[in-house]
Structure formats: structure tokens, C-alpha cells
Known about the structure:
This protein has helices at 37-47, 52-60, 90-97, 101-110, 132-147, 159-162, 179-184, and strands spanning 2-7, 19-21, 26-30, 61-65, 70-74, 120-124, 151-155, 167-170, 175-178. By secondary structure, it is of the alpha/beta class. The protein has a single domain (2-184), classed as 3-Layer(aba) Sandwich (Rossmann fold), CATH 3.40.50.300. The strands form two sheets. Strands 5-6-7-3-8-9 form a six-stranded mixed sheet. Strands 2-1-4 form a three-stranded antiparallel sheet. Helix 5 (132-147) links the parallel strand 6 (120-124) and strand 7. It is globular and about 40 Å long. It starts with a strand and ends in a 6-residue tail after the last helix. The mean pLDDT is 86.
Amino acid sequence: MIHSIRFKKDYRCFKAEDEISFRPGINLLVGDQGTGKSTILQLIRDSGTKNYAKKRVVEIVSIDADHGPSFAFDLEKDMPRTTSTFGANIGADLALRWSSHGQAVKAVVKAIPIQHGGAVVILDEPDMALSIRSCVEIVSFLDSLEKKDCQILAAVHNPVLILSQKEVLSLEHRKWMSSKEFLSSHGFNV
């Protein structure tokens, strides 16, 4: 489980000593573009690698985490419509290349290989290009991961996903707040 991330120095929109705390279960990171949602997820994701990226992360932040399995997917950078994500599975590769963006997103999210609990699942914008019905499916899938005792860290924008949780982590407000309060702060009447 990821407990928190604390910045050691100023980085992008974060100041030295800024700290973001996470909870067990579903953690939805919300806020306007440029508030640091993807930055947080990328730093956590890179901290689990064994290359130059991990060395860079250690200079920027300290991450309080228990070691365990994790799965990270950036729906923009790792999109199977533009990258060869499935490599050995030519059929899946071809099918995803001819799918709409939303269909590909759903396929990837539903294919997350979590068999047991305790894993950390990191998703950057799993609601990208999805219809309301598809967002409801993603909510159901995230709920199923939570029931397997997984921790989910997901940057989202869609009100369907935001309202699926009582509280969300607003990076523009730098605090946990009710999902309704967050949406109201953006002029969305709930």
C-alpha cells in the first residue's frame, strides 16, 4: 500500500514539504489539468522501476509504502492503439488498434491482471473517452478490485467516477473532500 508521498524539493506544481496522503481502497485524484494528478502517479510508478527514473524520483520525493505487487497503466502514454502493448498476442494488438479509444480503454482496464488482494493499481485517466455507461462499468470494476483488498490510485475527471466515492483527493485544494463539495466547487450542481 502507498501511504504518502512527500516532496523533498520544489517540483512542477508542488513545493518542498508538500505531502499527499492516501487511504486503503479507492483513491480518486481529482482537479483541473495542471494540478499534479499525473505527476503524483508517474512519480509513484517510476519509484518501482530499476532504472534512471527511480534515481530521479528519489531526488524529488520520499514515498512511504509497503512493498507488494503493483500494476500501473497510463491510458495516454501506454495506449494500445498507438503502442504494441500486448506484443506476443497479435490478435489482441490488432483488435485494439481498430477499436475506438473508449473501447481500448475499457479492454485494458478490464484486463488488469489482479488475481489476489494486496496489490496497488495505478491508473491515469481510466475514464478517458468513455461514455456514461462505460464509466459505470469502470466504477464496478474498481469496486471489485477494492473488494479484493487492492488499493487503487486513479486520476479521474468524469463526474460519474467522482460521485462513486464519498470523498476524493482534490489536488487543487490539497486535501480530501466530499465528492459533492468538489464538484460544487467547479459549478457542477449535485
